[in-house]
């Protein structure tokens, strides 16, 4: 991993010890797929970052400057992941945001994560997502719920056998997402994805698929999901991931998912699979 | 502010760019009152840190080593605040906690915050606290709700006139705490403080007062609070803060609160007020 740290438009050695990202998770992040020296979905990620910044009233660094630095960080990267964290910067102690602090931000390039089998095995996580409309949809840095959920696999006391991803319910029992992916299900012949107005993240890949499929955003119960005709996960790093198994439930590959993957690969060649 | 950064037992220059505290708020913190070169409530703060670490399965640095560093940081500090942040350290990208990462931690000494008038003016915050039993009670670093609540004062569009602190309800409408303090209310002749099993923080000063008053931990409605005979806030930096006003409601100084303050000052002279 190589990382560069900035405050406003100034490159700095390191994040300040009183950075609010560190103290309170007071920041936002984006994780972008890199392909042939570029981040093809940059615009959509930046747009989501802007929506998050507006919600948190968090000043962003200059868009063109960040873009130029991102391009520089991706030089020579054929396939990988670019991560951008933006925090409210360093500003002493206490919750009150300083109006004057410049945002701190980190750009880092990472290798692609290890491939997953085609046809994921999922588990249900015990950790629930809390209902918080003020933070729903945006990709903020308060992610302990996801950390706890993802840690359930490493726990020998937990019920699950090996799984590729875990699904999360909110505290009212509706299905929301996987720990680091969104999800779509074919229910009664129509594609649906959970609403993200109370928790969850407005994924960039999710938005592409929503538009392509003309899918519904709806509340989805655990039972509806388990009885769906097909299920897949998606995120902006891995694209579309068909699901083969969830507990006792198994799904055969579905032609609509294969067709969707083909359309995504045509629109965004970084997601072309070679199988 | 002076700050020292460590990874395990090694002093380092700065927090790593891939630190999980920064990425996900994957950490815990303590804010201790310093008095005459010591942190008199160190043991209680460390015990809460241990409870948080157990909940998050986050490895802590060596207790004696941290204590020695804290003592060093407080040399010559007559009155101030010591802040300790412990994160799960640096471990690449992704929610799965690495089993091997050593914790990163920051010790920083700060001046005492500016004094508040004796007899606080409070406001109601619009930002609610979400219901999340998995994180309730511990002092973790996912604090965007508090940041948003505290930012309401700076917003000229918000309703409130000037206030010293803001009270927060949970998403089900029960009173929980102020943005950076707990609260007690005298209701029907008995002292009560909100339960912290669904959100909120198990404050060190709150625990002292709970024991001293033999108070109840209960669900407290907004109406119950507004009709209470007396209300005060508390935290481990400021001690006990009597409340004089909340919206239209005003309270006269209450002898039981004065007596409690006297007992706290006797037990912990750092909280002696000179008025």
From TrEMBL, chains A, B:
Which molecular-function annotations from GO does this UniProt entry contain? 4-amino-4-deoxychorismate lyase activity
This entry's Enzyme Commission designation comes to 4.1.3.38
Q: Does the keyword Flavoprotein apply?
A: no
Listed A to Z, the keywords are:
Folate biosynthesis, Lyase, Pyridoxal phosphate
Where does this protein act, in terms of pathway?
Cofactor biosynthesis; tetrahydrofolate biosynthesis; 4-aminobenzoate from chorismate: step 2/2
The UniProt catalytic activity note for this protein reads: 4-amino-4-deoxychorismate = 4-aminobenzoate + pyruvate + H(+)
InterPro entries recorded = Aminodeoxychorismate_lyase_IV (IPR017824), Aminotrans_IV (IPR001544), Aminotransferase-like (IPR036038), BCAT-like_C (IPR043132), BCAT-like_N (IPR043131), Class-IV_PLP-Dep_Aminotrnsfr (IPR050571)
Identify one Pfam family in the record.
Answer: Aminotran_4
Q: What class of enzyme is it?
A: lyase
| Names of required cofactors | pyridoxal 5'-phosphate
Membrane-spanning ranges: none
Superkingdom of origin: Bacteria
The record's Gene3D superfamilies line, in alphabetical order, gives: 3.30.470.10, D-amino Acid Aminotransferase, subunit A, domain 2
Claim: Lyase is one of the keywords in the record: yes
Q: Give the signal peptide range.
A: none
The record describes its quaternary structure and partners as: Homodimer.
Query: What family does this belong to?
Result: Belongs to the class-IV pyridoxal-phosphate-dependent aminotransferase family.
| Name of protein | Aminodeoxychorismate lyase
- What organism does the UniProt record list as the source? Luteimonas galliterrae
What gene does the UniProt entry assign to this protein?
pabC
């Amino acid at each position: 991993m190589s990382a560069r740290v900035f405050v406003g438009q100034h490159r700095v050695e390191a994040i300040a010890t009183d950075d609010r990202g560190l103290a309170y998770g007071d920041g936002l992040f984006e994780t972008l797929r890199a392909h042939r020296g570029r981040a093809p979905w940059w615009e959509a990620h930046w747009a989501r970052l802007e929506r998050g910044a507006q919600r948190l009233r968090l000043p962003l660094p200059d868009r063109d400057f960040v873009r130029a630095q991102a391009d520089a960080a991706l030089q020579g990267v054929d396939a990988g992941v670019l991560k951008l964290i933006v925090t409210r910067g360093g500003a002493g102690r206490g919750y009150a945001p300083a109006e004057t602090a410049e945002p701190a931000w980190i750009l880092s390039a990472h290798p692609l994560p290890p491939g997953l089998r085609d046809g994921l095995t999922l588990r249900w996580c015990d950790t629930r997502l809390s209902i918080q409309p003020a933070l729903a949809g945006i990709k903020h840095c308060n992610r302990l719920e996801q950390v706890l959920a993802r840690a359930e696999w490493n726990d020998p006391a937990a019920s699950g056998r090996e799984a590729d991803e875990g699904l999360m319910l909110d505290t009212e029992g509706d299905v929301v997402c996987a720990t680091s992916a969104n999800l779509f299900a074919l229910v009664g012949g129509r594609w649906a994805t959970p609403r993200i107005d109370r928790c969850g993240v407005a994924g960039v890949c999710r938005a592409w698929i929503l538009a392509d499929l003309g899918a519904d955003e709806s509340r989805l119960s655990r039972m509806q999901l388990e009885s769906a005709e097909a299920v897949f996960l998606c995120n902006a790093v891995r694209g579309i991931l068909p699901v083969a198994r969830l507990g006792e439930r198994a799904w055969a590959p579905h032609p609509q998912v294969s067709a969707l993957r083909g359309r995504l690969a045509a629109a965004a060649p970084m997601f072309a699979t070679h199988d």
